[in-house]
Amino acid sequence: MSGTKTKVDEVTKPLSMSEMEIGESKLVQLEKDKALHLLQDYTDIDLNSSEAKAVLKKIDYIVLPLLCLIYTLMLIDKSSLSFANVMGIQEELHLTGLQYSWLGSLVYFGYLAGDVPAMILMQRAPLDKVFSGAVVIWGSVVALHAAGKSFAALAVLRFLLGFCEVFTAPAVLQMLSSWYTKEEQITRLPIWYTCYGFGNVFGGFLAWCIYQAPSWKWQALFILYGALTITTGIIMYFLLPASPTGARWLNDREKAIALERVRQNKTGTEVWSFNKGQLVESLLDPRLYLIFFYLLCLGLPTGGLTVFGPSIIAGFGFTKEQSTLLSMGPGGAAIIGVLMSTVLAKYTNRSTAGIFVHVVSIIGTVMMLAIPASNYPARYGGYVLALWFPNANAFIMAQMTAGVSGSTKKFAFSAAYQLGPAKYTMLAFLVFGAILLLVLYAYHKYMNYTRDKQDAEDERSPTDGIVHEVIENEEFLDRTDHQIRSFRYPL
């Protein structure tokens, strides 16, 4: 439009490194991002070279297996109480049904209490060291369950278990977005989430093995699970860095390649200090509340099925030994479900795959409600299908790793991820969860359309509209997805 003035500092103009260093207040202390120093030294990187492929192979051989292992152990540790119940912990310690139910719920109270301290600690201390330390502590807590002789002792331990496990989701989200491109996350995140199924399979198998030994009961179960977790935490301390800049198993050039690979993510690689502006932006971002209520929908049925799973199977008419073995079934089905939905996500998008998982779970829940109690094998089949719904977590996490930028904002969304009884209530929340996932997809599509339209207007008339400055290497600065003009949200 004629008469519109364009300020000099609004014209699209890349800033040099020296200019960025001078504008410290604007760029939030650039020197703190170690990634930029490595990128300055290596400018001849070819991401299609065999060298770059070798770096990805190293990442897949070290980072992904460790993340998979710790998530498997987290699921096993969280469900250990349900296997211990089949082995007689409730009768031996004279726990009432209400007390046992509270032991399952107290883990989530620990999540609530530990969420904010975890976010603060992971931004003030090295994330990888904090995470591995939390893993060692929670492994110790699991092992100490064997010494619990009363409801009060077990209640404290269950609360502490949740308090320590709450570090897992935000740490994993940060690490995956620091190591993998958005395209790679579509396959790596579901691979990581198949561990939900492996946790059920291995947990059930180990519990069944211990059940066969007359002198090894629920106490041995907790000691074994705890020892495995402690050992994994120690290995993580030495081998699992939060970002490429801290990897001992990469040289400087390989670190630069790893950083350059994720440049187009526009989500950064380093953990910066607390940023009040990003927290405010998070609280004003409608996706935070969509994700919170979506995970609440998943959390309500997940909590009950995690604690009472083997007992539910036994209620169908199976023996205790059969129930322990049959608890492996949902895990195996979950692995198949993740693989199927991952293929669907590659050919469509993340949201479609997530909704597909919900539809299968709804069918399974209807089977549990509608099939007569006398036909317990078919009802067990419905139970197996109903337990597909946690697989949708993989796709909501993919939305977060690829769709949120800025350290504080990432941790705020991770906090929303952490916070999530009747059979009909479960069915209603599964349906509502699918609707929320669809709304999140529509919001991302609208945001991308708005930005594409604005870019097209700026290109047609550079002197009209709002033209934002382009900052060199902004992908590695602590800028949010709202601040990076070229950012596009995953569908």
Automatic annotation (TrEMBL):
It is a multi-pass membrane protein. The chain crosses the membrane at residues 59-76, 97-114, 130-147, 191-211, 218-240, 288-313, 325-345, 351-371, 383-404, 424-443. It is found in: Membrane. Its main location: membrane. Keywords: Membrane, Transmembrane, Transmembrane helix, Transport. PROSITE patterns: MFS. It holds the Pfam family MFS_1. InterPro entries: MFS (IPR011701), MFS_dom (IPR020846), MFS_trans_sf (IPR036259). Residues 63-491 form the Major facilitator superfamily (MFS) profile domain. This is Major facilitator superfamily (MFS) profile domain-containing protein. The lineage of its organism: Eukaryota, Fungi, Dikarya, Ascomycota, Pezizomycotina.
